[in-house]
Automatic annotation (TrEMBL):
Domain HPr: 10-69
Top-rank taxon, per record: Bacteria
Pfam families: PTS-HPr
Organism: Paenibacillus nasutitermitis
Name of this protein: HPr domain-containing protein
Length: 80
Protein backbone atom coordinates (compact mmCIF):
# COMPACT_ATOMS: atom_id res chain seq x y z
CA UNK A 1 0.00 0.00 0.00
CA UNK A 2 1.29 3.42 -0.90
CA UNK A 3 1.40 6.06 1.79
CA UNK A 4 1.85 8.92 -0.68
CA UNK A 5 -1.65 10.30 -0.18
CA UNK A 6 -1.25 10.09 3.59
CA UNK A 7 2.14 11.82 3.49
CA UNK A 8 0.91 14.72 1.37
CA UNK A 9 -2.24 15.05 3.48
CA UNK A 10 -0.33 15.03 6.77
CA UNK A 11 2.24 17.53 5.55
CA UNK A 12 -0.36 19.91 4.11
CA UNK A 13 -2.37 19.75 7.33
CA UNK A 14 0.71 20.42 9.46
CA UNK A 15 1.67 23.40 7.31
CA UNK A 16 -1.61 25.16 8.16
CA UNK A 17 -0.34 25.67 11.70
CA UNK A 18 2.36 27.83 13.21
CA UNK A 19 3.09 25.27 15.91
CA UNK A 20 6.07 22.97 15.70
CA UNK A 21 4.79 19.46 14.94
CA UNK A 22 7.31 16.67 15.35
CA UNK A 23 6.70 12.98 14.73
CA UNK A 24 8.61 10.47 16.83
CA UNK A 25 9.00 7.01 15.31
CA UNK A 26 11.10 4.83 17.58
CA UNK A 27 14.27 6.92 18.05
CA UNK A 28 13.80 9.23 15.07
CA UNK A 29 12.29 12.71 15.18
CA UNK A 30 10.82 14.15 11.99
CA UNK A 31 9.38 17.56 11.23
CA UNK A 32 5.91 16.68 9.95
CA UNK A 33 5.98 19.74 7.68
CA UNK A 34 8.76 18.06 5.68
CA UNK A 35 7.40 15.73 3.02
CA UNK A 36 10.86 14.21 2.52
CA UNK A 37 11.20 13.39 6.21
CA UNK A 38 7.80 11.69 6.18
CA UNK A 39 8.63 9.61 3.10
CA UNK A 40 11.60 8.03 4.85
CA UNK A 41 9.76 7.43 8.11
CA UNK A 42 6.09 6.80 7.61
CA UNK A 43 5.78 3.08 7.10
CA UNK A 44 2.75 1.09 8.11
CA UNK A 45 2.61 -0.95 11.26
CA UNK A 46 4.51 1.50 13.42
CA UNK A 47 3.04 3.40 16.24
CA UNK A 48 3.97 7.05 16.30
CA UNK A 49 4.05 9.82 18.84
CA UNK A 50 3.36 13.41 17.93
CA UNK A 51 4.83 16.35 19.83
CA UNK A 52 3.07 19.66 19.21
CA UNK A 53 4.27 22.99 20.63
CA UNK A 54 3.18 26.49 19.76
CA UNK A 55 0.49 29.14 19.74
CA UNK A 56 -2.12 27.01 17.96
CA UNK A 57 -1.10 23.65 19.43
CA UNK A 58 -4.61 22.59 20.49
CA UNK A 59 -6.08 23.11 17.01
CA UNK A 60 -3.03 21.47 15.45
CA UNK A 61 -3.39 18.40 17.69
CA UNK A 62 -7.04 17.99 16.74
CA UNK A 63 -6.35 18.36 13.02
CA UNK A 64 -3.36 16.00 13.09
CA UNK A 65 -5.29 13.35 15.04
CA UNK A 66 -8.00 13.54 12.41
CA UNK A 67 -5.66 13.17 9.44
CA UNK A 68 -3.69 10.27 10.99
CA UNK A 69 -6.92 8.44 11.85
CA UNK A 70 -8.27 9.03 8.35
CA UNK A 71 -5.27 7.16 6.94
CA UNK A 72 -5.43 4.40 9.58
CA UNK A 73 -2.13 5.38 11.15
CA UNK A 74 -1.61 4.68 14.82
CA UNK A 75 -0.75 7.97 16.50
CA UNK A 76 -0.42 9.02 20.10
CA UNK A 77 -0.50 12.77 20.59
CA UNK A 78 1.37 13.85 23.67
CA UNK A 79 0.16 16.68 25.80
CA UNK A 80 3.17 18.52 27.10
Amino acid sequence: MSNNAAIVDISQTANKFRSSIVLQAENKYIDVKSILGLFTTLVGGHSYELHVHGPDAEDAKAAMAEVFTKHNLDIKILSE
